[in-house]
Amino acid sequence: MSEARPGVTELFVRFTQVGASGFGGVMPWARRMLVEERRWLTDEEFSEMLSLCQVLPGPNIVNMAVCVGTRFRGARGALAAFLGLLSAPFAIILVLGALFTQYGELPAISAAFRGISAAAAGLIVAMGLKMAASRRLRSPMAVFAIAAFVGVALVRLPLGAFLLIAAPASVAAAAWRRR
Amino acid sequence: MSDTLVQLAVDFSLLSLITVGGVITVLPEMHRSVVDVHGWMSGAEFAQLFALAQAAPGPNILVVSLIGWKVAGLAGAVVATAAVCAPSSLLTYAVSRVWQRFRGARWREVVEDGLVPVTVGLMLAGGYLITLAADHSVVAFAVTAATAAVVLATRIHPLWLLGAGGLLGLAGWV
């Protein structure tokens, strides 16, 4: 664990920044802030925490904010990170909604958005590749990463159903390897 | 609270506990509740709100804020957002307290050994699927690939890359 231990205010401020800059996917911004900029979590800790958030119900990124906040400052930290993540986007989206109903769709904006979405997709691809450097993938367990990619991206299995089978299978394999 | 607010709170807090990963997994159920069961808006309006939520910064789950706002104003937005985020967040809080207590425990290591590879595969799958959904031209694929490459190779702030993508889009190239 890194020695940096953020306070409640800092959790709120940093997650506000993450929420407000997260165009087309917030998770790459959260990883950048947590691992690369603030170094509150190591690479491995980020992947471990995200794995827990992935198997719990609820949007991953919201769960991630709660987990990070809890880890450093308990319930108050969780609340601070949660409110930080959601408050700015909440205000922005309502303003956009109001503008949208007033003026309808502007062609220039949707053209720009096509370009922004393409770049945002690249951020998510890069995050996946960075996470693939995990030491846990330098083992036969990597087969479960491949299975997840093939099952969800290529075969298009529903995420919930896939997790219900893959998560226990993968944990069982890990237990067997460590026995 | 008005009946509509109660309805929003009940329907969306149930959705909260069946969401896996992100909003995309509960979109069909949300559509059913909002459009088919309650008739709060048309299917076209629902699709527009979702597009707007994707265009805005922040978690796409905030499409529920827009739905709540459309249905019952600011109070509706607050109630819908809280309903969809609070139950799952409380569960996550409780689980993460327990999880922390077992840091370094063998069984926790085993669970993480198992789950991390699956999560990495799912993140790569997400990148693949979002690329297919977002990119409809050769230039768009090039923007995605270039952005990923620059992020991996340099420490440049990603907002510059989103800005560059936006400018290319404005120029009509994407």
Question: What is the structure about, briefly put?
Answer:
The complex is a heterodimer of chains A (179) and B (174). By secondary structure, chain A is an all-alpha fold.
Largest sheet of chain A: none
Estimated share of beta-strand residues of chain A:
under 5%
Specify the overall morphology of chain B. flat
Structural class of chain A: mainly alpha
Low-confidence stretches of chain B: none
**Beta strands of chain A, count:** 1
**Separation, N- and C-terminal Cα atoms of chain A:** 26 Å
Q: What structural category arises from helix and sheet content of chain B? A: mainly alpha
Q: What percentage of amino acids of chain B are in beta strands?
A: under 5%
The sequence of SSEs of chain B as H and E is HEHHHHHH
Give the helix proportion of chain B (percent range).
Answer: over 70%
Shape of chain A: globular
Query: How many separate domains of chain A?
Result: 2
> Largest beta sheet of chain B, briefly?
none
Question: How do the helices and strands follow one another from N- to C-terminus of chain A?
Answer: HHHEHHHH
How many DSSP-defined strands of chain B?
1
